[in-house]
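Project channel, design review

CF: Before we commit to the Yoonia ponticola constructs, I'd like one complete example in the thread so the newer folks can see what an input/output pair looks like. Taking CheY-like chemotaxis protein.
RD: sounds good, go ahead.
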Amino acid sequence: MKVLFVDDEADIREMIEIALIVEDDIIPTFAASGAEAIKILKTQDFDALLLDVMMLPPDGQEVLRVARTLPNHQSTKIVMCTAKTSQEAENELKALGADQILHKPFKPVKLAGYLRDL
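CF: and here is what came back for CheY-like chemotaxis protein:
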C-alpha cells in the first residue's frame, strides 16, 4: 500500500516514519507542505493520503480539493488529520471529498492497522 503523509511538523512526520518503517506492506512517502504534496500527487499514484488540515496555504483542505480533481486520485482513500472534533468540521471535510477523519493526537503505532482497515 502506497501512502502519502502530509504534515508541516517535522516531528510528526518523523514519528510516523518510525512507526511505518517496520511495516513491509506499507510504503510511505512524506511531504512537508501542501505545495510539495500537490507536486507529488501530480506525478505519483497512492492508495491513501493522510493530510494534516492545519498547514500554511495550501492547507490540507486545498490539497484534498486538488487531489479529487486529478484523474489518478479520484478513488484514492483520503484521510484528514485534525484536532477539530466537531461534527460540523467533519461534515465539511467529508463534503469536500474526505473518506475518513483521523483525530489528533493519534497513536502512530496504531496507524498501520488503521491504514489496512481503510
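RD: helpful, thanks. The chain has a mean pLDDT of 93.
CF: Residues 67 and 73 are 6 Å apart (CA to CA).
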